[in-house]
Predict the 3D structure of the following.
Amino acid sequence: MMMNILVVGIGGQGVMTAADVLARVALAAGWDASKTEIAGMSQRGGVVSSQVRIARRVLASEIVPGEVDLLLALEAAEGLRWCHWIAPGGRAIVNTMRAVPPVVSSGRARYPDDPVGDMRRLGVTAQPVDAGGIAVALGDVRLTNTVMLGAAAESLPFEGDALLAQVLQNFAGKEKLRRLNAEAFAAGRAVTSPVAA
Amino acid sequence: MAAISSHPEGDAMPTPADLPQVLFLSGNEALAIGAAEAGVSIAAAYPGTPSTEIVQKLGSYPRVHAEWSVNEKVALEVALGGSMAGQRSLAAMKHVGLNVASDTLMSAGLTGVGAGFVVAVADDVGFSSSQNEQDSRTWCRFAHLPVLEPADAQEAYLMAREAFDLSERHQVPVLLRMTTRVCHVKRAVRIEPPLPPPPRIEYKKDTTRWIVTPNHVGRRLEVRAARDTALRDEAESSHWNTIEPGADRRLGVIASGPARHAVREALPHAPLLSIGFSGPFPIGLARSFAAGVDAILVVEEADPLIENELRAAGLAVHGRSLLPPFGEIFSEHIARAARALLGEGEPAPAGGKAQAVFTRPPTLCAGCGYLGVYFWLSRMPNAIVCGDIGCYTLGASPPWDAIDVTLAMGAGIGMAGGIAKAMDKEAVKRPVIAVIGDSTFLHSGMQGLLNLTYQRANVTVLLLDNRATAMTGGQDNPATGRDFNGNIAPMRVDFPKLVQALGVRPERIRSTDPYELPTFLKVLREEMKADEPSVIITTRPCVFTPDFERERPLVVEEAKCNGCTNCLDVGCPALLVTRREQRVRPSGTTVELAWVEIDAQLCTGCAICAKACSRGAIVRPVPERRVIKLEPA
């Protein structure tokens, strides 16, 4: 078994944290895992992506385009940007929130009207999640990545509850944040698998 | 699988004694832990992607002196000094940083070391955050140094543990050559049992070695030649160079660095000579490997150094002509090269077609003082603006397009001096401006300014002091007032005094607030008119520093807005367009109008946009008065 997960979004959305959690929970579950990071210029509002590979033994850390099993897009247009990396039979979970960059505001580029619809027209199995909306309703847009991890919980080679436990480990000793993240995770999980949640 | 520590820092966690500890670490963190376990005492660096986290991590060990030196040459000298005086030492830098440090490195190749001395150099293969792609292994050939090339975090950890010993045995600086994919990929790293403490090495004066005057150099070159032979022997038998036989002997692969894993993934049955100790190159080992296979593919990132050495040794090998000429080498590249060599057909390409989605280039942050600087520079197309390396390099991108040249650390001011002298030959002179940040100025901009004043070159220098080495994550420097650990530093550079000492007349040294657009423009115009070098110091701190003060977000009063788009010229990411219109003026020209709103999450209340607005339509809302009702207990 080799599972390739591509987490994408923009700087500041918690792409790296989400990818880190996925790799750590895989390791704790007895798999080998790798996670790519980027730093430097790309963090200044630019495109951020992290590749997580999970297998009995991971060789190369980079995913071949066209071999992504799960695309976790923390921003809608970023989902469309990366969706050609998805393998036949793979799927995308997409935050419907739109982060409009200055290049669009200034009129030099256009934001797609319906990124999830565009992905579906390309034959991608895409699950929209209003993760930004859920996070804001819970009081903090920074919960977005936890909502998205909750939405991915049933698509991974380990228990959803183990993923939740790993998310909460980042907030050890911070009861309010633990509670908020648990709620965010449950809300995301309810979108993709109402029964499990 | 052994126990996994889940501590987010990857630091030691208690695990059962019978299980080896496994940590989830980036290559940079793993290298730092390995170096710490080998007993490194002095660690010096100038921050630079992808190398920064090495010394950042070493700073978490109380027994290590870790520092952000003012530039890479000084960092290398600090570490070499530590080694000369008997402490295991490490210098870390990115590939282009080693160019800066190279003069000292070349001499260190002659003197050798005292205690173990390791230079960790991170090549930005794929140039995600650099002005160039370079192969630092070239320095090993140039300065006669051994080079170790880890393929992943586990090897970075193990090689760092061993490199100091290698350095001491051969009395030589060791290059530990990282690449982006090793530095910034996290993997499970198995932690080894502790090492014995390093041997105590006492400093003894040895002038024939440490003073590289011509009368000593001949002897040192003899020592170096003998060392080269010893190192080549060591490479031939190094456990870092291994042969995996493989069942399919039609094509053997010689590979180094992270591409080795990609080779195994693409060609699971090919014989593989893995090279971890790659310089001096073990030619004998390669010959014996070559004897057992029909053809050889060499896979190495950046420059084809191994490939060229093999050719020079008379081995017929394939390599760069079948692989990408630059950037990272992935398994699909290797599979394609192998198919070409074996005469196999190309399969249908996997994956769909990339969709055309707008680009999302990195941009200046909301509240960044540079927004005010570039608002005006973008309106001065006649000025020639020399940029430099830092967040302010972004002024070269839209909507500002305000920079003419960006080359290398500190190069902008030097270039500006030459451009100013060239302008002296023109009938109609164009004003010359240099833009440089606080950390880059202290790194290598100061010398350029000294030259400007000495040569009377008419340049207006904008010294953008945002009190941080911002682009690499906000490290401290001598101008921030804080030390490596964020504590109060023993000194803080006084920029007006410093530039005056470098020859700028006091009348031509101005400190201004870039948020205050009209005042800033006035100062800029005055200094551009002056017939001598000027320095304008901007005073707003980076939004990520503790000095930054966020204010209440602004709002747009729609009724006052006429859609003129002046505010959008600021380029702030917190300004969002809500609607656009085209209008035809009485003169017949069409104007593009746009109305905006402000993202309250992003807005820091800096009000640069409000000052750009001619209609007073961007305002700071008056806070609602809170009525506190006192209720009886």
About this structure: The domain at 2-192 of chain A is CATH 3.40.920.10 (Pyruvate-ferredoxin Oxidoreductase; domain 3). Chain A has one domain: 2-192. Residues 175-192 of chain A form the longest helix (18 residues). Chain A has a mean pLDDT of 92.
